[in-house]
Amino acid sequence: MPNPAEQLSEDTTDSARGVETGSDRGPSLVLGDTRPGEPEASVTNLVGLVFLAAFFAFLWFWGGLNAVAFVLGLVIMIFLHELGHFVTARMTGMKATRFFIGMGPTIVSRTKGETEYGIKAIPAGAFVAISGMNNLDPVPPEDEPRAYKNASYPRRMLVITAGSMMHFLQAILIFVFLYSIIGVPDGDGRWEIRELSKLDNGSDAPALAAGLEIGDRIVTIDGQPTDKFDDLRTYVSARPGEQVVLGVERDGRLIESTTTLAAVPHEEGPDTGFLGVGAEFENKQLSPVVGLQAFKETALASFTTMGKIFSPSGIRNLGSLMLQGPEDVGLDSDEAAERPVSLVGIVRIAGDDQFDWSSRLFFLGSINVFVGIFNLVPLLPLDGGHAAIGTYERIRSTKKRRYFVDYAKLMPLTYGVVVVLGFLFISTLWLDVLRPIS
């Protein structure tokens, strides 16, 4: 979304005039718009470049290739959000003065035409500066016709919602690609052993004791076919402590192995049998309609999640978890598991080796849906706040007189929203660093 700091501070005033302030870039960087006949500006901040390289090196050391790839996916997600704002602003004749990926010190920038493009050192955001977002953003007289605030209502709505629309488009493409091209595991189809477990006491589970290996297929148990993994699970669960004969297919050969199933006790109900195998299924390609259905279901789940996070009980839960020590609330407790996670938590989850790439893709699609919906919440500084104000201005306007909202009157509410978002950011980061969910 357009950076609130760019829209509501002196930095916006300077950017609208084509001047970069030292507080944003450092004293060595002062750039203006390229004028006809002038060379394009290009500056490299070596310190920022070293910081960015060190960040990805640390990320590689901490989470490996999986974490690096997922962070790059998030960067692309944010870039496409801002690209939506930028492209629609240019399409509708608005003036976009800056388009930056990242936050903090600028590594490199290049001014082309009326827009300065650049990369900053912290890959945790992006922004597009559009002239005249509101009455607190002074615009030179010659740029007034191209200011956001003076554009028609449909054009303003197109530009301000374009970021969320890009998130929704990304999510739809990811889900359709995942379900229709990669495919999803077919629980009723062919399967083989993907994982062999140990018992809680550290000893070999019955499958390991029987000499089973990753890639084997259990085709029969006591002569009963196990075409479906559920067939095997149902048969094993009903026979704790019993000896069974496994028919195993390995490298095209059929072998037999005998083992005794373990008995798993339960506080309520009888013991259940345990063999200790995890299954890997063949993928099955589904209709693109299934991908659209996944988008719909994820959107509905996102509304429910937002309601829990920003409810009084959700805020209290975060505060309580920050104050309590690990001995008070287990890291895998229901209370801890229901809390939101920060970017650190998201990357940790996605970088887990137990996550396959299909799961990571689904996770990225779900993040796109959540961010797209959250960004449309009708409160400043979110894009939805600008959309709500634009709609209110449209209702209050007449054919003879255009009504403009005074953003200064909305600043107390905006600061309140920023405080809540700041608390959410700090609390989730604190918990993900010191008390990560297991």
In short:
Helices cover 47% and strands 18% of the residues. It has 438 residues and is an alpha+beta fold.
Account of the 3D structure:
The chain is α+β, with helices and mostly antiparallel strands. The chain has 3 domains: 1-151, no CATH class; 191-284, Pdz3 Domain (Roll); 286-438, no CATH class. It contains 14 helices and 13 strands. Strand 8 and strand 9 form a beta hairpin. Helix 5 (153-182) packs antiparallel against helix 12 (357-374), helix 5 (153-182) packs antiparallel against helix 13 (383-396) and helix 9 crosses helix 14 (411-434). It is elongated, with a radius of gyration of 28 Å. It starts with a helix and ends with a helix.
What's the helical proportion of residues? Answer: 40-55%
**Total of domains:** 3
In angstroms, what is the radius of gyration?
28 Å
Sheet having the most strands: 4 strands, antiparallel
List the main descriptive attributes of the protein structure presented here.
alpha+beta; 13 strands; 47% helix; disordered N terminus
SSE inventory with pairings:
Elements: H1 4-8, H2 10-16, H3 22-25, E1 42-44, H4 46-91, E2 96-112, E3 115-130, H5 153-182, E4 184-185, E5 191-196, H6 206-209, E6 217-221, E7 224-225, H7 229-237, E8 243-250, E9 253-260, E10 262-264, E11 272-274, E12 277-281, E13 283-284, H8 288-309, H9 312-323, H10 334-337, H11 343-351, H12 357-374, H13 383-396, H14 411-434
Antiparallel strand pairs: 1-2, 2-3, 4-13, 5-12, 6-7, 6-8, 8-9, 10-11
